[in-house]
Amino acid sequence: MSVPRTLGDLRRSNFSEERLRTRRVKDELRDNLVARLREKGDAAVFPGIVGYDDTVVPQIINAILSRHNFILLGLRGQAKSRILRALTTLLDKQMPYLAGCEIHDNPYAPICKRCRDLLAEMGDGAPIAYLTPEDRYVEKLATPDVTIADLIGDIDPIKAARGGHELSSELTVHYGLLPRANRGIFAINELPDLAGKIQVGLFNIMQEGDVQIKGYPIRLPLDVALVFSANPEDYTARGKIITPLKDRVGSEIRTHYPATIEEGIAITAQEAWTRRNGNTMHLPPYVQQVIERIAFAAREDKKIDKRSGVSQRLPISAMENVISNAERRAIRNRERFVVPRVSDIYAALPAITGKLELEYEGEMKGADFVGRELIRSAIAKTYDEYYTGANVQQIVQWFDLGGEIQLADSIPAAEALENLNGIQGLTDKLGPLVISQKDSAEQQVSAAEFILEGLHAHKRIGRSEERVFKAGEMKPEPVREKSFDAEERPYRQRRQFN
């Protein structure tokens, strides 16, 4: 079905003139949200957003129903930007505007001089174009170098010269991002990074619904929904939201990290690149749980800065690295299946340490040490999920009698399984982890290694850095404290004294 291409055709179409004149973008968001709630309920508002069904999503729904500008306040990696971008699903599929207009003027009620002149000249013959929901979303990452001209607009001498206009003419205005978001959604990420005097420039649009272009006696009554995101750490670390602007934000909505391991696994499974082309892959549940528990443990560890947070990107990146290490092993050894092992999680340390902001104690021990301790803690808790109360004394006794086995992360599954079968009682304990003893060698090796790593995490057996499992708990290597220069030493002494 063809759509109207001129103003006259538009008047005779299903696009109601009264509706386009009076329905503002916040009314549009509200109407479409109400229709979706009636049809599918809260869960369908933001598909793909996991863990917010009973907390964040109801608050966002209330803000939209209230026609509020709102801010999402939370630590990094809490899906704030993703939620803001998902608001476009609540916009109409098509929105007509006067073709060629920089601020997407309403055909029935234009606000810029260019479009008013166009209607006076062409009338019903004025050309019409259409915006998709994605076209109506404008996003800006706040940085200290953003200017009023970037957001609102400024004089354009080149436009004046080329068009033969006087500098005082409205036709010489170069519109900023905010006017260009007219009849849509304007999102600012990391709002506290925006300089205070620039935040002041948002007052008029939030309170009066218009903007004033620098140096021009004009006011543009824009139709725009403003949404923001911010990290609480930024209030003191880099900047703050000025009080008058914060007062004009209708709703402040707090985001959070996943509340349960299951929610975290669901998010990681959704976001991580796990579907690789190549060999068939089997991702054991206990490996997923260990990876997710690393992030949960990091959020509680005193050696890690809680104000900075531990992003959900940590388990996502770690999962991708773990699979890649398993994939590399399968390719080198020409194996049929890609099955990650616990040793692959240790190989993924580069994807973990880069996501951690360490406190003073953590800096002294080093990121690798902290990362290994987090993995070990996660393995211990996951092991308890499967083997609490299980009798593994026969396995421990085998090591106590002098047994040793080396399980490098590159060893082929067939060779590793042959060695593992020599450990008394080990294969009998694979039941909770594999379906049957007929499972592939890759799966059996992964399960057996998890048991040994669990015993090591509980200090029932030892393991060296060369991944040699043996009797007793291996003593960790002494931690070397970093050296300090003359300027840092007094600060260190004060910390120790206090």
Provide structural commentary.
With 498 residues, the chain is α/β, with parallel strands linked by helices. The chain has two domains: 248 residues, 3-Layer(aba) Sandwich (Rossmann fold), CATH 3.40.50.300; 211 residues, no CATH class. The protein contains 24 helices and 16 strands. The strands form six sheets. It has a five-stranded parallel sheet with strand order 4-7-10-1-11. The chain has a three-stranded antiparallel sheet with strand order 14-16-15. Helix 14 crosses helix 15, helix 14 packs across helix 16 and helix 15 packs across helix 20.
Short description:
Helices cover 44% and strands 11% of the residues.
In round numbers, the mean pLDDT is: 87
- Fraction of residues in β-strands: 5-15%
How many distinct folded domains?
2
Q: What is the makeup of the main sheet?
A: 5 strands, parallel
Report helical residue fraction: 40-55%
CATH T-level fold name of the largest domain = Rossmann fold
Output the structural class: alpha/beta
Provide the fold topology.
Blueprint: H1 7-11, H2 17-22, H3 25-40, H4 56-65, E1 70-73, H5 80-86, E2 95-98, H6 113-122, E3 128-131, E4 137-141, H7 148-151, E5 153-155, H8 157-163, E6 173-175, H9 177-180, E7 184-189, H10 196-200, H11 203-207, E8 211-212, E9 219-220, E10 224-230, H12 234-237, H13 243-248, E11 251-254, H14 261-271, E12 280-281, H15 285-300, H16 313-333, E13 337-338, H17 342-347, H18 349-353, H19 360-365, H20 367-387, H21 393-400, E14 405-406, H22 413-420, H23 441-457, E15 461-463, E16 468-471, H24 489-497
Parallel strand pairs: 1-10, 1-11, 4-7, 7-10, 12-13
Antiparallel strand pairs: 2-3, 5-6, 8-9, 14-16, 15-16
Helix pairs in contact: 14-15, 14-16, 15-16, 15-20, 20-23, 22-23
